[in-house]
């Protein structure tokens, strides 16, 4: 089904902001110009601009064209698990360079999260993730062996690991995310082209399948000049956090 026109207008403007075509501090085209460009009414354009204001992407107004406040595009929670899907839905080009896929004994941290004994064999993946060719995130994952071994017949440079696992029948149903800050270690610094000790946003994740079994522990580290996180709380019987990821 074709999305409403105001969604398409908002998505187009988000893409221009995220790609730098509309830089921070730049004024957006006037409402009249946007109406002409998209063949839309003023009401439709105003709906699109209101959505961007609510996301914090634009500000100003009051009779003047709004200006770009930050170059960040929100990621819905349902795409949080897939960097590839997230990037493509923003109109960006995802990429990856696999550094290592190896079978080794689980570290104490991974074992605790996965509910297995330390030293139990797991499949570890280290990948550099790119947005439009720019090093953006370093992905460290530990999969339980029955799941991780499915990656040995897959080229991790070809696309989404999660999409491959879903195709192979692994029903990745839920995840728990912990977000904090950490200084870049030597591996982070070398692969992300940043100084050692530079601040990174870290997202640690425990993913489970449809039965509730723990299948992955991940430690993903993002450059904060390229990606930020936003949490929206929605009251629906109880307060439930809705996690969004944003990119500049």
TrEMBL record:
> What Gene Ontology terms describe what this protein does at the molecular function level?
DNA binding; DNA-binding transcription factor activity
InterPro entries according to UniProt: Bact_HTH_transcr_reg (IPR050679), Chorismate_lyase_/UTRA_dom_sf (IPR028978), Tscrpt_reg_HTH_GntR (IPR000524), UTRA (IPR011663), WH-like_DNA-bd_sf (IPR036388), WH_DNA-bd_sf (IPR036390)
Mind listing the UniProt keywords for this protein, alphabetically? DNA-binding, Transcription, Transcription regulation
Q: Tell me where the transmembrane regions lie.
A: none
Cross-referenced Pfam families? GntR (PF00392), UTRA (PF07702)
Q: Report the SUPFAM superfamilies cross-referenced here.
A: Chorismate lyase-like (SSF64288), Winged helix' DNA-binding domain (SSF46785)
Q: Gene3D superfamilies under this entry?
A: Chorismate lyase-like (3.40.1410.10), Winged helix-like DNA-binding domain superfamily/Winged helix DNA-binding domain (1.10.10.10)
Q: Where is the HTH gntR-type domain?
A: 3-71
* Signal sequence, renumbered to the chain: none
What SMART domains does the entry give?
HTH_GNTR, UTRA
Q: Name one GO biological process term.
A: negative regulation of DNA-templated transcription
UniProt name for this protein: GntR family transcriptional regulator
């Amino acid at each position: 089904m074709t999305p409403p026109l105001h969604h398409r207008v908002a998505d187009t403007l988000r893409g221009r902001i995220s790609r730098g075509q509309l830089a921070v501090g730049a004024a957006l085209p006037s409402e009249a110009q946007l109406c002409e460009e998209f063949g839309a009414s003023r009401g439709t354009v105003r709906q699109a601009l209101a959505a961007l204001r609510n996301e914090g992407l634009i500000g100003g107004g009051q009779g003047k064209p709004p200006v770009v406040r930050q170059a960040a595009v929100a990621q819905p929670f349902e795409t949080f698990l897939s960097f590839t899907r997230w990037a493509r839905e923003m109109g960006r080009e995802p990429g990856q360079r696999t550094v290592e896929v190896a079978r080794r004994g689980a570290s104490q941290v991974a074992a605790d999260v996965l509910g297995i004994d330390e030293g139990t064999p797991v499949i570890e993946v280290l990948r550099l993730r790119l947005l439009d060719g720019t090093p953006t995130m370093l992905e460290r994952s530990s999969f339980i062996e029955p799941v991780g071994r499915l990656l040995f017949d897959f080229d991790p440079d070809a696309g989404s690991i999660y999409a491959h696992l879903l195709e192979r029948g692994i029903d990745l149903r839920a995840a728990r995310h912990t977000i904090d800050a950490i200084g870049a270690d030597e591996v982070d610094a070398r692969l992300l082209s940043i100084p050692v000790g530079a601040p990174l946003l870290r997202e640690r994740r425990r993913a489970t399948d449809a039965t509730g079994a723990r299948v992955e522990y991940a430690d993903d580290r993002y450059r904060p000049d390229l990606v930020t996180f936003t949490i929206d709380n929605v009251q629906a019987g109880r307060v439930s956090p809705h996690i969004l990821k944003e990119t500049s």
